[in-house]
Amino acid sequence: MPRRAIQNGIGGVVRAQVLIKEGAVKEVTILSGPSIFHAAVKAAMLQYKCTAESGEITATQEFVFRND
Asked: Whole-model pTM?
């Protein structure tokens, strides 16, 4: 959670799409959500380790940021 989001009480849902080739994340595209979270989502998804035999896979994931 970005520090600025915590300080300002910002939350939201970020929807992101990832391109996986040969089991490795090659590209992350943010589809929607507050821009304050975009860099954190990209950084997290680029660290994913995937299991795949071969070829390309596109997957979508939502990240929920709550500031309770």
From this structure: 0.84
